[in-house]
Amino acid sequence: MQLRVGTIRPDETMQLKIVALDGTRPAPKPEPAATEQPSSTSKFLAPLLTVLAVLRRLLAPVTAKLAPYAALAAPHVRKLRPQYPRPGRDGWRRWIPSWRQWLAGWLATAGITGLLLTVAYAATDVPTNLNSYATQQDNVYFWSDGTPMARTGWVRRQAMPLKDIPEGVRWAVLAAENESFYSDPGISGKGITRALWRTIGQGTTEGGSTITQQYVKNVYLNQDQNLGRKLTEAMIALKLDNRMSKDKILEGYLNTSWFGRGTYGIQRASQAYYGKDVSRLNPSEAAMLASLLKGAGLYDPTLSAANHRRAVERWSWILDRMVKIGKLSPAERATYTTFPEPLKTLQIYDTGKQSDYLVELASSYAKKNAHLSDKEFDLGGYQIYTTFDRKRETELTDAVTKARDAALKKDPKDARTAHYGAASVATDGRIVAVYGGPDHRRQGYNESNATTVPAGSAFTPFVYAAGLEHGVHKTREGPATPVTPDSVYDGNDAVPVTTPEGPYWDRSGKKVAAHNDGKRSYGPISLRKALARSVNTPFMQLGMDTGLEQVKSTAQAAGLLSSSFGPATPALSLGTSTPSTIRMASGYATFAAEGRHTEPYSVRRVTRNGAGVRLDAPDRRRAVSPEVAEQVSDALADNFRLSHPTTAATVTAAGKDGTTDKDTALWYTGTLKSVSTAIVVYRIDLGKSLEPLPLDGLAGTRENSVPFGIWSRAVGIG
After folding, report:
1. At 612, phi and psi to the nearest 5?
2. How many CB atoms lie within 10 A of CB 584?
3. Are strands 382-386 and 139-142 parallel, antiparallel or unpaired?
4. Whole-angstrom Cα distance, residue 694 to residue 682?
5. Could you tell me how far CA 477 lies from the centroid of its own chain?
6. CA nearest 660: which of 517, 551, 531, 464?
7. Tens of pLDDT along 49-102?
């Protein structure tokens, strides 16, 4: 081989080219694999080289202007250059720098470091986009007594304003994590130095961050453990500390930190570990939660004996630190000698078989009446305080479930197509309980809110109220004639329906006639007795005399929806309308409320992160006069006494059953103690057709009907 120096072009780096005698070049050494992991030193140098490159570009114009002066000063500067190895020294002493050289080196290092940090600070901006998981929250639903009912959302987080977090809770966290928080500049020099040392030496970083740095990491950065991320974290923390108040930073930190058990934020941690709101925590419980910030996997005392030991030690240490920094008196500290054991299991207020129906109703109501879009609501952070009564909901669900199970046992074939809907509405409009179906995850629609089943004779109280309120017209142009509960109508079966001009003919040319249950005739009968004894024929004629539009108007004012009404034909008075059980219960509640109707509502209050959200109040209106409401209630009370004398002997209630044409559905709606409950049982085979099917005995007898049995058990008298 021969050695030959290759020609060097201006754009090439000087290099020796070794060429073999035959003119060929030896194969180059293989490059390192691209998948090799960079060393810890390269991790350290990468951000520094980036900063140097930026600095070089910034200073390029200045160095160009100073180049002539530098050339003139070069000879003089060379004279000042320290001689190394040191002359006049022997042996190893020649290689030991003087104190002046040490000082010069330290000053140069400090100056360069300061310059680099200044450039890095100027080049770093506070991100405008937060981590998605840092802003996501769940929506939490509460029972009427304020206890959690369900939650929806992917992230278990509920942000709380700092003012709603007790001072003792705040200082427990500060004592554990960053006691100098209110006086430091947002970064910890000691922590950054330790991170630098460990990065160079071992390729990992460790703690020592301030709360400001931890907050920056939570909401702006990722969890990567490298020096570049640590440096960026420090720069953002410095800027954030100058732009944002300490209280705001602390609030953000408390609401975004991980506490284990699938929870983010102090509020959800308080609920997960102690089953209560953060505002009810004492310093001892707060100290236990603060210990979790060091690592929930190591300090959740319920996971293992070792965890419990570590948690107790850190809990005690945090309380002592609070005393040391003057945020807990020695006397109060002396009262916290027993470790506050958290709940053994996580309380997950998830949705389930029945609560899904409740959440569906409440979320729909909240969005509509708080004027929230789906996008706004899905961002989470809302607390929805519902009207649902936990006890009543349990009793209603148990009553329907028992009836369903009994039907499946008695007649499994027909019972598979049986459906049950139920709702309880108070006289002030509160929906206190509903039964929407066996399982929302298998049956997506809500039986309590479905408008597919005719009301049947359960509609007749609204016809009675319309007649009493508006009177009747025997002629087209004549004035209305008053009607009273004692007004007599023909109670016989198959009585033709008449108009001022004569019989009412249907489109097929037949006279329309009303029928009673069992085609039984009662002869002349007063309207009050007709309602009390469930005689249908008088009410079809009363509806015609009052005017079907007046009947619809009265029923709508009492609570039924206009969309549920059928055609304005004589059959309207016998229940061709299809109200939901919620609306039926609401309508009967209007009579019990002395004729004042309140739109049924399922949410009484909404907040977001503790702040109130404006919620439209439910509409309230006068449906019928107090006298008419009392007369309807009296007739319904008579019906209850006549139909169920044994039960009526022990309780005062008002109610009525409702039958439909061809026995496809059976209702019972009753009012007890200012709460009206409507029950419906019907059959539809959803797999084949939406046509109603006969109940075939699944609803029981009139004297002992399944709907009445459900009602009586649900209200606690069965």
Report:
1. -65, 145
2. 29
3. parallel
4. 8
5. 58
6. 517
7. 766 676 677 677 777 777 787 777 777 656 556 666 767 777 777 777 776 667
- Straight-line distance from the first to the last Cα atom of the chain, in angstroms, rounded to the nearest whole number: 110
Peptide bond into 61 cis (omega under 30): no
Of 483, 670, 703, 534, which Cα lies nearest the Cα of 589?
670
Crossing angle for the helix pair 283-291 and 266-274, nearest 10 degrees?
Answer: 110
The residues facing 431 across adjacent strands are 425
Q: Any idea what the Cα angle at residue 305 is, between residues 301 and 309, rounded to 5°?
A: 65
Residues in the chain, overall count = 718
* Residue that the structure tokens 């800027």 belong to: 239
Measure the CA–CA gap between 375 and 38, rounded to whole angstroms.
43
- Largest distance between two CA atoms of the chain: 139
Residue 152 has phi, psi (to 5 degrees) of -135, 145
Which range is most confident: 38-52, 271-285, 384-398, 442-456?
Answer: 384-398
Residue 347's closest CA among 399, 396, 274, 292?
274
- Enter the DSSP assignment of 343: P
CA distance 580 to 678: 9
Cα–Cα distance measured from residue 320 to residue 327, given in angstroms and rounded to the nearest whole number: 10
Give the residue carrying structure tokens 């959800």.
Answer: 268
> One-letter amino acid identity for 6?
G
CA angle 251, 255, 258 (to 5 degrees): 135
> Cα-Cα-Cα-Cα dihedral of 354, 358, 364, 370, to 10°?
-150
| 3-state secondary structure at position 114 | helix
CB count in 10 Å sphere of residue 184: 17
Residue 118, CA atoms < 13 Å, CB-side half-sphere: 8
**pLDDT tens-digit readout, 144-157:** 999 989 888 766 67
The pLDDT tens digits of the residues spanning 273-292 come to: 998 889 999 999 999 999 99
Q: Is the pTM for the entire model greater than 0.90?
A: no
CB atoms within 10 A of CB 646: 7
Residue at 591: amino acid letter: F
**How far is Cα 653 from Cα 650, in angstroms, rounded to an integer?**
10
Strand partners, 665: 682
Copy the structure tokens of residue 662. Answer: 């061809």
Residue that the structure tokens 């200073």 belong to? 59
**Those residues with Cβ within 8 angstroms of residue 281's Cβ, 6 or more apart along the chain or in another chain:** 166, 168, 169, 270, 274, 289
The DSSP code sequence of 186-230 is S--HHHHHHHHHHHHHHS-------HHHHHHHHHTS----SHHHH
Is the distance from CB of 696 to CB of 414 less than 8 angstroms? yes
Question: For residue 617, what are the contacts with CB-CB under 8 A and spacing of at least 6?
Answer: none
